[in-house]
Task: structure prediction
Amino acid sequence: MTPEADPTPDGPQYEGRPLDRPDDEVVDQGAGFDLRTLVSRRGILSIAGLGVGAAALAACTAVGNAAASPSATRTATPSPTPTPTPTPTSTTSVPLPAGEIPDETAGPYPGDGSNGPDVLEQSGIVRSDLRSSIGGGTTADGVPLQFTLRITDMANGDTPFAGVAVYAWHCDAQGRYSMYSSGVENESYLRGVQVTDADGQVTFTSVVPGCYSGRWPHIHFEVYPSVDAITDSANAIATSQLAFPESMLGGVYALPAYDGSAANLAGVTLASDNVFGDDGGALQVATVTGDASSGFSAMLVARVDTITAPTGGSMPGGGPGGR
Result:
């Protein structure tokens, strides 16, 4: 059911809050309004559910430890057979890196408005499951992946950077980027935003990206000071990329869904990659557990120093495959 605004003497409101865009539908109010609605509903549920708190807590814990499947998602192709989801990597087993997360290019396919399409203006971009396009459409196929980014605030003693917004995106199993690549220009899968929790963490449910020519398999991410700041890519306080260890990729790229990835991987190394080659991705290779049959969990700790000026960002254009 489409939510409806309530007319008031002060203008249209939804759940007691004025619409950010009075002339648009409730579902078109943008990411900031979506997040505030989500937080408001969680507050109401926490009060209303005191009588069943123990049961609710147990249910939430079970869901939080597994990758959730999108509800009522429309797909362009028949849904694949459900695959067991990986167990999240323990955050305590990942040590603090030696330095700040390197600033990297966002590449030619950021979808953040700096180089054409802007997914960050779309209602629904704040989400944890990236596998389907926003609002329905195609669901990306591939080996299940749950990846966690833990952001620390170097300027404040590497305390958890709570409340910052993290935008993550990557290519699909065939090496295509939604919103840009031929055949998926109208899709928005494998892109999403989350706000870090009290531990400075966000966790996304996705699929292992493919390997396209000239690049080591990776995930892009930008860190913003708040969810309201994501509407302008210039507000990003860090732009970087997560790399995958070679040990996990052989079994994945042997699968039919990843046709061509094995050959592309054979032509590149972490040392020769044009992004990770400076230091072999020393601060960017994720800690990974799992396997190609049951899926993977990945964890990367990214230390962000707000005192230093960010030097990463979009790179308009780009050669075959981009960056």
